[in-house]
Amino acid sequence: MHNEYIKTVKFGGSSLADANQFRKVANIVLADKTRRYVIPSAPGRRFDGDEKVTDMLYACHALAVKGEKIDPIFNKICERYNSIIEGLGLAISLDEEFDTIYKTISGGASDSYAASRGEYLNGIILAAYLGFDFVDAAKCIFFTDNKQLDSEKTNVALAAELALHEYAVIPGFYGSMSDGSVITFSRGGSDITGSVVARAVEAELYENWTDVSGFLMADPRIVKNPSTIDVITYHELRELAYMGAGVLHEDAIFPVRLSGIPINIRNTNRPEDPGTMIVPKAENRKTKNVITGIAGRKGFSVITLEKDMMNSEIGFGRRLLSVLEDHSVSFEHLPSGIDTMSAVVSTHQLEGCRSEVMHEICVACNPDTIYIEDGLALIAVVGRGMVQSPGTAARLFSAVASAGINIRMIDQGSSEFNIILSVEENDFETALKAIYNEFVKE
Prior knowledge:
This protein is of the alpha/beta class. It has helices spanning 19-30, 53-65, 71-88, 95-106, 111-130, 151-162, 190-200, 234-242, 253-259, 316-326, 354-365, 392-402, 428-439, and strands at 7-11, 35-40, 133-134, 168-169, 174-176, 182-184, 205-210, 231-233, 263-267, 276-279, 293-306, 331-333, 340-346, 369-382, 409-412, 418-424.
């Protein structure tokens, strides 16, 4: 174990979209000597209608696959990077890199290779501007043959490599396979790289800089100016992210969770804002609100079975779930009564197999009645403060009822820090606002 205080810092595409944004990033990094390892994304959009560099690289690959010239798009990419270099007054040239990338993509390189070059080139520029060392992620972030991150091999290799660099820039989003070929994480994967680096250097903090001042308590497209969450646990974040709330790549939580490293979501354009702290546990941290956040999604269906004496029929639930499994339909919730059982599923998973699923359930379970209801939405109300606050569920149901909304389903997790409601899609926005207004005091 080291005795130094180290921060790993990741910057998203909007934070590195042009030279002006690069200057903001440099000011942030250089203002704190503990910010030693920096993970950049590829340049994002500079304005509405602008193109992300990663999208342009994917487009180059698509043209190359068809045997067409990539020059028109590739030249735009080169211009984008050269404008950043010129804007920063750097005396570096990426011409050799451009030439290699052009030839490699034109020669049939994978889409992963093409897409990864956005971060790779941005990393070279940022390292030069900060005066940090450049460490190519392909040399120390490894994937298995089935294209999954090889966590332990990566951790050992990264720790050894970064021990040689007091300050370094490591491009996000990609690593390499055992044959040396470049492979990318899923979109948003720079978050994962930052997390992997934080674990490898045993960082005290992983700062994830983006274009929002932290994690919001509700969707700002539905709730006007929702409050920022000060502190959220990994568990709470997973619950909210699963239900559609998005700031951080979900997979980015696991490497730091393994090591108990907190994540701080910060805003590059408002560095004075404290942002949101994502922590392993929060027993000793006071929360001003009973709930931590609200999130939800539309597009659910409920398959309901009714049968007398269902509760005494061994294996009933298993047979229902087996039919869903055979059709690759996963269930979200499974509310049940003595003579009824319902499976909440994503509507799109039933596309193309609805009739077969219903028929096979009838054969397997022989229900008295079976029917499907579409057009439902799920809302997750999440908060560690709910466990110690009697009457939370009553307040929740009362708020929704006062808005004239009928709750179709209720499901509370055994840990008691999340309650799931189902309402009709038409009532989704109104219900979410009503819940927010009940629990969040200005």
